[in-house]
Known about the structure:
This protein is 78% helix and 0% strand. It is mostly helical.
Amino acid sequence: MKNTNRVFASVTFALGIFVMISVLTFARPCNHDTALRNGLCIAGGAVALVSIVNMFRPNLVCALLNVLGGLFLLIAPGTWLKTCTVQGMRCLTYTKPLATVAGVILMAAAVWQAALMLIDALKGKRA
């Protein structure tokens, strides 16, 4: 189970770093959307930090925090963090789809890791 936790933590770490770098480089939002850029960059950094902790001290809290990070990436662009209203702008063409896809993948990996941890804990109590 230890190697499985490290794999999931590595995937979530890579996604967090990817979101941070991409929001600052190729998938950056429009120049006036600094709140969107900063919010997604901070969210990616927080996911990466939680994933580092999860690599060395795997626990259910870290997995659930990554689920929340993925949910934030999925929901925030366009709701809490405003985007342009004009189609074809950078924030709607690049940034929002990137955050949506990264959020879904991050949530899936974190939910899967949390489920495996719960199953492992339940098997340990039965034995």
